[in-house]
Amino acid sequence: MSEKKKFTIEYEIKSSPRILFSFLSEPNGLSQWFADEVNIRDHVYTFTWDDESQKAKLCSVKENKSVRFKWLDDDAQYYFEMEILQDELTNDVALAITDFALEDAIAERKLIWDNSIDYLISVLGA
Questions:
Q1: Mean pLDDT of all residues in 61-69
Q2: pTM above 0.85, yes or no
Q3: Do residues 2 and 101 make contact, with C-beta atoms less than 8 angstroms apart?
């Protein structure tokens, strides 16, 4: 089996870190842009798209900064992280996504993230 490669993409988001964080960490916020439905139980999030579900454990959370999830059906070293970056001088806010995919699937995975983040920006009204 091929190894997955880590990649990071960054998006400028016109939102306060506090508001953005609620869309990254709370089931209600995530269900508005990331998945059709999101439920949480014992730090395990169930994400549902078109009647297909995937479970991910919330591995780490830094208030108004970042969330890291690990898919339960994936190898232990793989995760996806959403990190809020704020420029100290300009106060501009960016969202950095770190994810893993097989080499030949990275472009497709980036496109999925692009579409998801575009939708998040429209939900935020940013």
A1: 97
A2: yes
A3: no
Helices 17-25 and 106-124 cross at an angle (nearest 10°) of: 120
Alpha-carbon distance 93 to 20, whole Å? 9
d(CA 26, CA 37): 12
What is the CB-side half-sphere exposure of residue 62 using CA atoms within 13 A? 9
State pLDDT tens for residues 78-100: 999 999 999 989 999 999 999 99
- Whichever domain contains 58, its CATH number is 3.30.530.20
When divided into structural domains, the chain yields a total of 1
- The closest of 13, 31, 25 to 96, measured between CA atoms, is 13
- Residues spanned by the domain of 52: 5-125
DSSP notation for 23-69? HHHSHHHHTTTT-SEEEEETTEEEEEETTEEEEEEEEEEETTTEEEE
Q: What confidence score (pLDDT) does residue 126 get?
A: 67
Using DSSP, how many helices (H) and how many strands (E) does the chain show?
A: 3, 7
Question: Cβ contacts of residue 120 below 8 Å, gap of 6+?
Answer: 13, 23, 32, 33, 34, 95
